[in-house]
Amino acid sequence: MTFTQPRHLIIAAVVAAALAYVGCQAAYNGLPRLPALAGATLLLVAAIDVVLAQTMRPRIQRKPGTEPVEALTAARAVALAKASSMAGSIMGGVWLGLLGYLLPLRSTVSAAAADTPAAVIGLVSAAVLVAAGLWLEHCLRNPDEPEEPDDDEE
Questions:
Q1: How far apart are CA 81 and CA 93, in angstroms?
Q2: Where do the domains of the chain lie?
Q3: Is 30 exposed, middle or buried (0-12, 13-18, 19+ CB in 10 A)?
């Protein structure tokens, strides 16, 4: 398994933003008002990632008094980290696409003005999830392995 590449996260966000923008153009009038904290649910997963990173990092680094991490547990945590950063990137793109649609309409459409705070909260929450996923992945790196070279073969 390779480390998450920033370009993969950026590509996912850009594609999601474009699809969300097009979707808003086609169907925004039919959507209900967005709850202000709709995107904040991503913060729950981010909190889990951060807690897991804090508890597993000393074990991965083999600090005295800590129990080593089993390989399967570490693999599952890495999968969670990669999924978190990708999900955050995709959701960030969706919120960004929604914001791109809403901002020009804020002064003329009251629903757009009302939905803008939810989109901003969602975008910030998605960015926090990406950061938490990348932090968890960083904390799970084996200290005995050399740094992975930056190769563009992926």
A1: 18
A2: 36-139
A3: exposed
Whether residue 36 contacts residue 68, with contact meaning beta carbons closer than 8 Å, is answered with no
Q: What is the pTM of this model?
A: 0.88
Measure the CA–CA gap between 31 and 13, rounded to whole angstroms.
22
Quote the CA–CA distance of 151 and 154 in Å, as a whole number: 7
Is the CB of residue 41 less than 8 Å from the CB of residue 88?
Answer: no
Q: Are 36 and 118 in contact (CB under 8 A)?
A: yes
For residue 30, what pLDDT band results from cuts at 50, 70 and 90? confident
Q: Over the stretch 68-103, which tens digit does the pLDDT of each residue have?
A: 888 898 899 999 999 999 999 999 999 999 999 999
Main-chain phi, psi angles of 67, to 5 degrees = -85, 135
What would the DSSP string read from start to end of 105-125?
GTTT-HHHHHHHHHHHHHHHH
